[in-house]
Amino acid sequence: MPRPTAAQLAYGSITVIFSTLAMLLLSQTSSAVGTAVIAVSALALGLLVALTVPQPKSRVVALRKPAEQRAEEPVPAGATRSKTAA
């Protein structure tokens, strides 16, 4: 399984925090069982959001083909001498 990306961690964490706060405020529960149910459901919702964040597509790197090697033309013997050396 690939490692989670930074976006997945951020979206999942933010979802858990805000959904927990919203459910606690809306339900106005004061029991331990109600708080536990809200916490578990917020964690499940955060996991669902983190898993549905699209994964970045892997880049396909094209390999460069080596340039066609040209047949080297023979160099005439007189062309390699320096004009200053006589």
Tell me about this structure:
This protein has helices spanning 6-27, 32-52. It is an all-alpha fold. Helix 1 runs antiparallel to helix 2 (32-52).
* N to C succession of SSEs: HH
From the spread of the alpha carbons, the general shape counts as rod-shaped
Question: Which percent range fits the helix content?
Answer: 40-55%
If you compute it from the alpha carbons, what radius of gyration comes out, rounded to the nearest whole angstrom?
A: 34 Å
Overall pLDDT confidence: 81
Which segments are poorly predicted (pLDDT under 50) over 5 or more consecutive residues?
none
Tally of contiguous helical segments: 2
Short description:
The protein has 86 residues and is an all-alpha fold. It has helices spanning 6-27, 32-52.
Relevant terms:
single chain; 50% helix; mainly alpha; 2 helices; 86 residues
Topology overview:
Elements: H1 6-27, H2 32-52
Helix pairs in contact: 1-2
